[in-house]
Predict the structure.
Amino acid sequence: MRISPGRRKPGSRQPFSVSRLTALAFAGIILLGMLLLMLPGASRNGRSAGVMTSLFTSVSAVCVTGLVVADTWVQWSGFGQTVILLLIEIGGLGFMSAAFLAYFSLRRKISIQQQMIMAESIGAVSMRDVVQRQKRLLLRAFCVEGAGALILTLRFAAEYPLPLALRLGVFHAVSAFCNAGFDILGFRAPGAGMMTFRGDPVVCLTLCALIILGGLGFLVWDEVLGERRASRWSVYTRLVLIATGALLLAGTVFTCVLEWNNPGTLGPLPWPEKLLAAFFQSVTLRTAGFATVDQGLLTPAGKAFSMFLMLIGGSSGSTAGGLKTVTFVVLLVFLWNRIRGHRTVNVFHRTISDDHVLNAIVIFILMISIAFFGATVICATSSVDLADGLYEAVSAIGTVGLSSAGTARLSLPAHLLLMLMMYFGRVGVLTISVGFLRKKPAGEKYRYAGMDLLIG
């Protein structure tokens, strides 16, 4: 989407790309977060964390990934954790949500350009009622986060003083809803994260509900809550809900099959906890980043299947990253129709345009290529095998945040590459999918003569 004032005069400046503005805004927020985290007061020991640790943490928070080079509780003070929480909220809900709150509180008029940026940040295909949609988005998001924070606070209050329980409840509710995967449970066991609560149904199921709701997409929320009759839902909404349910079920079943007797993951657990851990793994792989089982001890088949789910991710216009559920469905339907010899791609008695299919293929090939390139660099510069290097790369490009090798163990070049991959996974795919791929193709002035090729 581009801001276009109509016919431009010769020599006038080209209108600024909204997608480019989105990318620059995210970069600016990352740099601001880095500067705040570099302050001595942001670290628990009172000394500056340094440029690399602060930058990596800021990138991971704004890109709602969750990969860390230092335990969030051990490294960061209350101020530092608050900065991280704000970065997660801005990165998850979109920087325009924060800007909208500022404009709304100051009662400033929102320009057409700002409305277009809002539409793009929430994945809207039109500007109709975008301001009202933004209000509903923020209100519903805060309500869901508040409900999750209340449940978690009540649960944590059974073990910890109320101030700490409230802090834990709010932080993890926001982190889960925004699909960020940051935790502040290092005081229990540094680096253990949610594994200390893997048998707790209240904590696990609350986090799962927040992750799923955050990953559905705000436009799906709008339609489901606005139109109760499923028959009137759009094809997009139906595809999102069906794909999400199918992936959650498949993830749970395959995790159970592949890890049931693995002594490093589900093996030692009683069967109710095995089912809970398998379901949580299926949910968190959809770009959330929390872990109730050790990702490094997964079977080779379990790691391969986990990477498959991480690549798919959540839905468009949501807090989740990845290829996106509907993009994956479009690819599957396209392959199925091609195998059967059909030239058109049809879903729910509707035809998917060739442009949409090609866009899905482009994004898929791009993500796969970047993931394998990243894995190659990680393996070449760090002492990890290909499986762990690829797991780390897919986790970064899908903004998941799970690690099987331990991100802190990787080399400086690997950390630099992971930051670029996290940024692209959150911002690059967003700007390509709703910016570049929305543009009308330029008219072709000529074509070369056709030719026949042997394919396959």
Notes: The beta strands are 345-347, 350-352. The mean pLDDT is 84. Residues 18-438 form one domain. Residues 354-381 form the longest helix (28 residues).
